[in-house]
Amino acid sequence: MYAEVALPGTGFKTFTYIIPPKLKSSIRPGVPVMxxxxxxxxxxxxMALSDKNPAKEKELKExxxxxxxxxxxxxxxxxxxxxxxxxxxxxxxxVLKASFPPDVIGRTKMRVFASKKIPHEPKWNYVYERIRSxxxxxxxxxxxxxxxxVSNALVNKMIKAGFLYLSxxxxxxxxxxxxxxxxxxxxxxxxxxxxxxxxxxxLLELMWGYPSGMAVSKLVALGFSRALIEAMAEDGFLxxxxxxxxxxxxxxxxxxxxxxxxxxxxxxVESISESLEKNIVNTYLLFGITGSGKTQVYIEVARKALTxxxxxxxxxxxxxxxxxxxxxxxxxxxxxxGIWHSRVTVAQRVDIYKRAKKGExxxxxxxxxAVFAPLENLGLVVIDEExxxxxxxxxxxxRYNARDVALMKAKIEGxxxxxxxxxxxxxSFYNAEIGKYKLLRLPKRYGGAKxxxxxxxxxKNVEVNKKYWPLSEPFIDRICNNIxxxxxxxxxxxxxxxxxxxxxxxxxxxxxxPDCQVAMTYHKPGGQLRCHFCGLAVKAPxxxxxxKGVSFDYRGxxxxxxxxxxxEILGEKGIIRMDSDSTSRKGALEKIISxxxxxxxxxLLGTRxxxxxHHFPKVGLVGVVLADTGLxxxxxxxSEKVFQLLVQFAGRAGRSGNSDGQGEFIVQTFxxxxxxxxxxxxxxxxxxxxxELLHRRELGYPPFGKIIRVVFSGSDGSYTRWVARKxxxxxxxxxxxxxxxGPAPTRVFRLGKKYHYQVxxxxxxxxxxKEWLKGFLGxxxxxxxxxxxxxxxxxxxxxx
Length: 800
What we know:
Elements: E1 2-6, E2 15-18, E3 32-37, E4 40-50, E5 65-66, H1 75-87, H2 92-99, E6 106-107, E7 109-114, H3 122-132, E8 138-139, H4 152-161, E9 164-169, E10 177-183, H5 189-192, H6 198-208, E11 214-215, H7 216-221, H8 226-234, E12 238-244, E13 248-249, H9 263-277, E14 283-288, H10 294-307, E15 311-315, H11 322-332, E16 337-340, H12 346-357, E17 363-366, E18 378-384, H13 402-413, E19 416-421, H14 426-433, E20 438-442, E21 453-458, H15 473-484, E22 488-492, E23 501-504, E24 521-523, E25 528-530, E26 537-539, E27 552-555, H16 559-570, E28 575-578, H17 588-597, E29 603-606, E30 619-624, H18 638-650, E31 664-669, H19 675-682, H20 685-699, E32 706-714, H21 717-734, E33 738-751, E34 754-763, H22 767-777, E35 788-794
Parallel strand pairs: 14-19, 14-20, 15-17, 15-18, 16-17, 18-19, 21-31, 22-29, 22-30, 28-29, 30-31
Antiparallel strand pairs: 1-2, 1-4, 3-4, 3-5, 4-6, 7-8, 7-9, 10-11, 10-12, 13-16, 23-27, 24-25, 25-26, 32-34, 32-35, 33-34
Helix pairs in contact: 1-2, 1-13, 9-10, 18-19
């Protein structure tokens, strides 16, 4: 019996292995197996079985063994994996890698051990004894020294000679148990005061402020010795418990009161509930204006699914939305919720994966990659802010859209899907119009709140103090008035850092990224210049490298500089900033959101992270500092993206429904007559949709046609361009119905020392053409060389 095994990073082919007799009863499609591959071991997944003798049977190797059976894929999961590989023209091994927690499949780590064969040559014997003395062996590496002071070439020679050997080091991470110290509830410091040393008393007073306990490691970091903590536990003052570092949120004891649904919410819940009860595979588009109560609809139908014994998957586009979502759902659903995103550790994700697979966890809330979570008896899939670009994976492959994968997952699993948005994607709203999805509307804000009044400030014709540019006088006045009225303000500037470029006043020198040839952004904390494309960070110069001048101009404005201006106007205690820099540390995002939510800071400044999904009832004003950014990019989705961003952001204001006022939405712009800005300030989605649809139909863009973007990257610009042209000719010859655009340089032509060109394919792509593309990617032509990397992106969200 033979097995076809798919492995990550090996292209579109699978590998045939012999199934040893002892494993015959355990091997079936979907089972992860450990196999030998060249000079290392790897974990792959069995895709098919065969009893036919392969042509080169003598060259075949046996499957080495199995891993934890909890990672075995069901037939439905395999169907989804194969669909993703086929639709996105991606090797199935790469899809498998994305579908498991990190490090479960792929190349395994190896360790070097000493064998029983002892070398006599002095140098070899020295290395042998060093390795033999370490019982756990040495990690086998290629890029770094295996044994310090010894060349890897020598170690490899000793392996080949049999003095050393390699062993597989396969370990899936497990949740880490941390020790927590809790104060005993019956301890009275005042009555025990005479018996306590000052240090013990200090520790107890600290612990009273943390009734749920504090990590022992944190207490040690604060200066309390481990011996002191353990002694106080022995004397009965403290209790030390081991707690696993988990990303599973337990249900809250203080549940939220049941909401009184309005008429439109009730209608939506009833329609979705009927689908759940009758086990009908329906997809609903919940089209509700900002603040209309879409989340409460999600909660009600999730409750319904759970009472029926089904599981629920809740997808959000980005991490910044998870803290408030976790709070809402954990207070409303009476069951544990697994949290899945990139800031959750590998061990925590493995724990969630295993619990979900065993049926112990019935709700998972997470971002894009959570779509692969193996929930048992899946009944409901919720996709919030379905239009968001962050659902699309850009690199590495598979370049999938989690929204579309979730739709297919629900179809395969027989689940109901609810997609929600105030600004649906053009494709989704069109599908609802033609009857592919069922359209549900929430046309009014919950609780009687009104949409905010919108104002456009023309920066060409308004007074702006040069000191505070680009904050106009009317904008500053509205900020101050709202704060004086006890309201909060959110300000959007979709550009992080301090300034867009560093310019020498003497000679005009501009700090350029040497790898990407674009201006580096100045970040004031740490005095760094950073490339926002390749990530290069260097110390900002104090002396110009060209003219030796010492006077620099910081051109452009980012969130760090705007924060300084606002502090100067409002005072330091009034501002909190939320961007990828300020939220990089663990727990920072949650702290920023909770600080603003309880009203400690009146002004929240941030990038697009602040624009959607958040519910802050005290916000009376939201303002866009520079609304023209992104409007004129060479991307057919540019208008749609700007419209969605502005409407979503406007929806953060005036959500309380109280008599405090309607809320305000201010847009600063150099072009107030722009049609997109007029649509956005009017918050008329359907008017925008009708106009944009005519444009899309005329040019054959989605939803009226499909797009495949092919990007060519290489260190030799001329050769990369030649390969792109040659490939475009091949595409033209093989694409029967469609259009080829390009090749053309990408917007950032040089990125990370490589040159980039793109070819865009428009049309309807047959199964035969997709199969041909797979062969093309496999390097079927002599002129295709590894020096040029070719990437295929089906349904791209970025065209530049």
